[in-house]
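dumping this here before i forget
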Amino acid sequence: MKLWGGRFEEGPNEVFQRFSWSLHFDRRLFEADIAGSQAWARALARAGILTDGEADTLCRALSEVPPPPADAPDEDIHTYVIRVLKEKTGALASKIHTGRSRNEQVSLDTRLWLRGTIDRCAASLRALMGALLESAQPHTATVIPGYTHLQQAQPILLAHWFLSFFWKLERDQERLCEVERHTSVLPLGAGALAGNPLGVDRQALADELPAQAAAQVTYVNPVTGADAENILGFHALMLRPGQTLALPARSPALVLHQIEGGTEVHVEAPPGAAFATMTHALDEADTCAIPGYTPLVLVNRSATEASYLFLADESPLHRKLGLYEVRPDPAQPMLGQLAAGLP
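structure:
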């Protein structure tokens, strides 16, 4: 099942289809998608959009949807679930879309999956920390040499050595708790832009789903109409056959994803960098990350075919915070002018 394409005479380009289809990895959102759809069906019933019987039928059918098989012919986990739901309930399945945007569905699934994953990671961390405590207890008087810079330094207790790992894991636990707090916000019912017009009780939804708080709907600045939380910038780049493009050092880090073709990425180590100058050879579907303040050179490896790249960076956030900076290359002054104009 595909999300779109009914108005086109031909199917999508094979490269585009491989790039956009995601069931091979978002299948892990299966349980979250089922739980979110069941909660939404009950919310629509409370709002009078569905009858109680229709909601019960949808929820029961959703609970009977099996995990996607490896050869499922669907674009992503959401289209898989709705296809099987239509096979079980017919036209009634289409009502589950009422008042729910894909944006909030994807965001909810991701957040629910993250909550479960964070909980499992935290439980594993606690078990490992307990094992370290048990290992340390018999060695409160066992003296061993402590090392620094590959040389023996001061004597320490073996228990101290065990507990040094305990406190590292404790800090990881704190970070997980902080991520969980930010993750536990309910986007369902927020709509695609500025809320849901159908009288859906978002607080009841938040109470039903595990430890979720209803999101505040402030996607758009009411004065300027601009994005209220414009954090990431996304760009597409085409390199002509054989083209070499040099980019100067900018403050935001950069992620490059090869859509089609092949590109050599020469990462120039700036003065004082903790890494050496390196080269990455990107083929289709490869991704690499470039640290901030790092000049780089992109080279299309083909002399006959164009190379297409997807770029993502934090330049909007840096500009909003007044941190955006371009470090010009004295040998190539035009690069600074070019980077200053990037969105």
